[in-house]
Amino acid sequence: MKYLFLVNIKDGYTAEDYAKAWVQASRIIQQAPGALGTELHRKIGDDRSLIAIAHWRSKAERDAMEHQHNEEVAAIIKRAAPFVDITPLGEFEEPEWVVRPPAR
């Protein structure tokens, strides 16, 4: 499954600042069972808007990680929180199938 959220960067902070915090927290979170990686993307034409994607083997494994309080992750999030607005976009199942044109 995928968990997506929108990150809006406030004045006085940069996407690069947030990316540092994202990498720190992700390194810890990705040790949880079922974690399959994360991505952070900058919106074209707006370097203050990012989309974050966390990949998990299942919703149950992601939920289990959320219920395990990690002081280090909580501290990283708390330090970044005043500088960003985060809007969850939702949890999405992996598609049953994906159609992609052949590579050239």
Textual characterization of the structure:
α1 (15-29) runs antiparallel to α3 (71-80). The protein has helices spanning 15-29, 59-67, 71-80, and strands spanning 2-9, 35-43, 46-56, 84-92. The mean pLDDT is 94. Helices cover 33% and strands 36% of the residues. It has a single domain (2-92), classed as Alpha-Beta Plaits (2-Layer Sandwich). The two termini are 29 Å apart. The protein has a 4-stranded antiparallel β-sheet with strand order 2-3-1-4. By secondary structure, it is α+β, with helices and mostly antiparallel strands. This is Antibiotic biosynthesis monooxygenase. Residues 10-78 form the ABM domain. Keywords: Monooxygenase, Oxidoreductase.
**Total discrete domains:** 1
Helix-strand string: EHEEHHE
CATH topology title: Alpha-Beta Plaits
Give the neighbour order of strands across the main sheet.
2-3-1-4
* Count of helix runs: 3
Annotation keywords:
33% helix, 36% strand, 104 residues, 4 strands, four-stranded antiparallel beta sheet, globular, alpha+beta, Alpha-Beta Plaits
